[in-house]
């Protein structure tokens, strides 16, 4: 029995039975209609074709007839709605000799062929239906998954909006807790037994700030501003923060290449990603170990993607954070980037670190991946497309020109720990810093050193005299000193200010970049 389709030139053997079975399957399970004159005739005439003796019939392939031992051959079309959908071939072989079929026999064969065609069509329909059923089921599943995804996205959006709204105010409260707490702590005698409690308060508040930052980033309330920046510089300014985060028995290594790695990212958000990864690495190594942060330039090709996933191609900056800690099980590994997924005890983790990091890296057009093995440690890999060469050269040039920083900065900040922190950061970066704890002190210091001071970095809200007063005094006295404001308050409640404003909490690299920019600004702000 053969199958063919209307308009098709191909024929396929569907079923065989009898002596030549194997030979037919071997020789021609599929062939062109044109190669078989009987089939060609059937397709055109749509009625049985008989060859009484195939050995002498001019239409047959003699070698084939000889090999198979064919004698009489009868070919009947499988007709469905007038179309030939196949053929039924019957033959006698060898000793069976030659038989001439009667009209009646041919009639019977034709009816049988009709039944076969109908049965065949039914099977084909069932096949098609089951394919269609599978397709429909697949579409339904996809729909259900999409709906679930949408519901999840909506849920996340609600959580995000809610969290983001609270996080903003919460952040300001935390700044107050930290500032005052620190002040109380400094005033305590070394023998005071309450010191430990105060340290615990401060540690909890610090952890809360970290959490709040994640919430702000997670809810996209933190405006991400993409700008070309040097990966080396981010790592450099972050370096000072990392050591105190880690236990002494954790060896920290930061490896950066000489060639400039310039990517388009938001420095604060990128730092937060690295802090999240470092925090996780620290938690995974409660008994010590090694933490390695490595930056390199990589060319991503198909082979790389096959191993690490993602779809980024071309030149990328790669940042890896590797720990020698506990590692992760397959189940944890599958869920690490899920929001609120945590294996940590209540109060130790919220499960926002990696989902936030994932979101941030995606906003940078990058890719984050993880490899881990239980007991052997973990590597997180961040890939960010490298910037255009022209921009890269430009940023690298600025980096070289301004590092280390030069100049004298007057820093007016009443929050002492914060002032110390900023002063330390600026000093380490090469600036000389004169400190003032209130507005009046700032004005006095400026008058005493006006010829050396190139930049005044002042909080907007200060005791005694405000940041605005400091600005007025500076302008009245010295025309080209740059002034940069910092504030923990939303800028819209402060009213217009005569200069750039940095919103606290400010990350080290944001601060250094702003200082550098203010100093290299051709015109002082008025
Ligand atoms: N370096 C690592 N080694 C082992 N497990 C890790 C590592 N990084 C992440 N994990 C696992 O992934 C989970 C999710 O990490 P994620 O940073 O998102 O949340 P978290 O650290 O639990 O809480 P949060 O970061 O919000 O404080 C962790 O609870 C931990 O089980
Ligand atoms: Mg974490």
Description:
48% of the residues lie in helices and 21% in strands. It contains 16 helices and 18 strands. The chain has helices spanning 21-27, 37-45, 62-68, 103-187, 195-218, 231-245, 267-284, 302-308, 330-335, 353-363, 389-402, 416-428, 439-449, 467-477, 491-494, 508-520, and strands spanning 2-4, 10-13, 30-32, 49-51, 70-80, 83-93, 227-230, 250-255, 262-265, 289-300, 314-323, 367-373, 377-385, 408-412, 432-436, 453-459, 482-487, 501-503. Helix 5 (195-218) packs across helix 10 and helix 6 (231-245) packs parallel to helix 7 (267-284). With 526 residues, the protein is of the alpha/beta class. The chain is elongated. It has three domains: 2-101, 2-Layer Sandwich (Beta-Lactamase); 228-385, Histidine kinase-like ATPase, C-terminal domain (Heat Shock Protein 90); 397-520, Response regulator (Rossmann fold, 3-Layer(aba) Sandwich). A six-stranded antiparallel sheet has the order 3-2-1-6-5-4, sandwiched between helices. Bound molecules: adenosine-5'-triphosphate (ATP) and magnesium ion (MG). The site of adenosine-5'-triphosphate has 23 residues, from helix 7 and helix 10.
Low-confidence stretches: none
CATH topology of the largest domain: Heat Shock Protein 90
Helix-and-strand structural type: alpha/beta
Mean pLDDT: 83
Strand content: 15-25%
Tally of discrete structural domains: 3
Q: Care to count the β-strands?
A: 18
Strand order of the largest sheet: 3-2-1-6-5-4
